[in-house]
Amino acid sequence: MVSQQLRDGTELYVEQVRFGKEEQQRRKDSPIYVDGDEIARAHAAADHIVFIVDPRLGFNNRTHRFWINRLPPGGEEGQLWKTLGHRHTVEAVIHWLHGHGHSIIDGQRYDWEAGDFICVPMFSWHRHVNSSDGPAIYVASTTGPLSMGIGQAVYEDELYPEFWVFAQKGEDALRTLVPGGAEALPELPAAEGQSEAARLYAEQVRFAFDEEHKRRASRVLVKGSELKFEPTAMGALAYVVDARLGFHAKALATVVAEIPPGKHSGAHRHLYDEIDYVLAGSGRCIIDDQTFTVKPGDTLAMPVFAWHQYFNDGDEPLRVLAHSTRPAMENLGLVLTQQGELANY
């Protein structure tokens, strides 16, 4: 019996040792490019979300997904959600492509129009209202795969209360931005002499309370007209959502890159997932030894640690929306970014 356990242990250990090597091959075998025309056809035929990049579709993205959705015209009465909307223990960044309207997030109203961005605070109830005469269309990235992978994904939707996990426990649990409830500051009995262990444990207990307030105070809306493109080694970048800009985002970050006609971005690679969506312009993207022709609506799921670089072959600026889970990997201490050729803007 002991020898069987030892043999099994060896096999399990060797499986760990092999993982990194096999992961490199899985990244090479994973899909990278999704044609924007194919996305448009699928979206036109559907009346709901169309997932573009998702591990359940064969992609090797382990930490976030990307999708497109359409809201029907008609304002509040045209929406399925009437009061709460839905909430989830995943981070989300929404970019509005067409239309105008507003979102109700944690009871606050945010007016948006095409080109704007919304960063939804973790576990906040939110719903979106289309005030346009036609459909409002948006693309979004969420960290669902990461949360599902660690067993911490909770989605609560007012249309499906039978699946509520925390909201069903009462009004306090319904209002909090922290699963389990954390609106009231927890009180602990004073420990005699306030030992270091007592202090450390008290910090642990009040963490969720502090987190609640940080989420409520964080930035939510970014106006597309206010994007500020600045020179970097990778070219002209506008940082949209980043914890260093006042967003309470621990896992997801968003930038928009702009490459002038006839120019190219820098080349780099990094140890985190990235999903790119072409907003405007045309050109090429070279990813390791593969070249992809890109146009508006195309999506690229960058393999982890693959060199990538954009070239603008058109007559107008090439704009690329990039969502990544750099913050998640930074918080784990596992980010490595290597810069290759510099941008020639």
Output the CATH class name of the domain at 34-149. Answer: Mainly Beta
Distance between the termini: 67 Å
Morphology: globular
Sheet having the most strands? 7 strands, antiparallel
**Which structural class best describes the helix and strand composition?**
alpha+beta
Number of helices: 6
Please state the second-level CATH architecture of the domain at 34-149.
Sandwich
DSSP, total strands = 23
Task: Please explain how this structure is put together.
Strand 6 (about 100-105) and strand 7 form a beta hairpin. The chain starts with a helix and ends in a 6-residue tail after the last strand. The strands form 6 sheets. A 7-stranded antiparallel β-sheet has the order 1-20-17-22-15-14-13. A 6-stranded antiparallel β-sheet has the order 2-3-10-5-8-12, covered by helices on one side. It is α+β, with helices and mostly antiparallel strands. About 20% of the residues lie in helices and about 30% in strands. It is globular and about 70 Å long. Among the domains are: about 35-150, Jelly Rolls (Sandwich), CATH 2.60.120.10; about 225-340, Jelly Rolls (Sandwich). The protein has 6 helices and 23 strands.
Give a brief rundown of this model:
It is built from 6 helices and 23 strands. With 345 residues, the protein is of the alpha+beta class. β13 and β14 (235-241) form a beta hairpin.
